[in-house]
Amino acid sequence: MEKVFERPKGLTDAEFHYCPGCMHSIVHRIVGEVLDELNIIQTTIGVCPVGCAVFMYEYMSCDMIEAAHGRAPAVATGVKRVMPEQVVFCYQGDGDLASIGTAEIIHAAARGEKISVIFINNTTYGMTGGQMAPTTLVGQKATTCPRGRDPEVNGYPIRVCEMLATLDGPSYIERVAPTSPASIAKTKKAIKHAFENQLAGKSFSLVEVLCTCPTHWKISAIDSLKWVEENMTPVYPPGVFVDR
Prior knowledge:
The structure is a single chain. By secondary structure, this protein is an alpha/beta fold. Helix content is 36%, strand content 17%. It has 9 helices and 9 strands. Helix 1 packs across helix 7 (181-199) and helix 3 (94-100) crosses helix 4 (102-111). The longest helix has 19 residues, at 181-199. It is globular. The termini are far apart. The model has no long low-confidence stretch (mean pLDDT 96).
């Protein structure tokens, strides 16, 4: 029998630990496919800090480094500068990148570090219990704001792509929302472009992926896709913010 679909070589045969409906598994597969298609598995180093994807090193066939919470861009900067011939990427969630790691991501982008960043935005702290994140929407409920995010108390959501796009350092910034087969293909195209930019010697690239968290949103996996489209994309519109 001819195989028409199989696990990419960029992924190991370890079983994902993610909750049903979680998009980390989709994005992991995309990264694995990109590493495979660009033939860079043996020359890639990924950096993954604390968060739901803390065990990503078990799933990727490339070398992986575990960083302290929020510090992945700093670690990736050191690796890339010492080993400029390697492809170096960060994989970070919103509670990591947009909160404790805000300084690291802003200054890595401002310096134009030649790394690629995959930013998972699911508007919540998934690993630690569903607390409010910097990306939690106004009115959205979380364990630390059970009545909904109140901008008078908690401030407003942080739009990472828009913020980093004001800097001169980045070469590529895009936001995607993989809620359909077509948009999953678009997400892969964006992530592949971020890696290709690095191979071409270009500066900092970041792809923000609007993702679901059915467990902490307390809705079904199918409804969570609709929730992304109806509630997240108006606040975080998909599109290319920088490509130079």
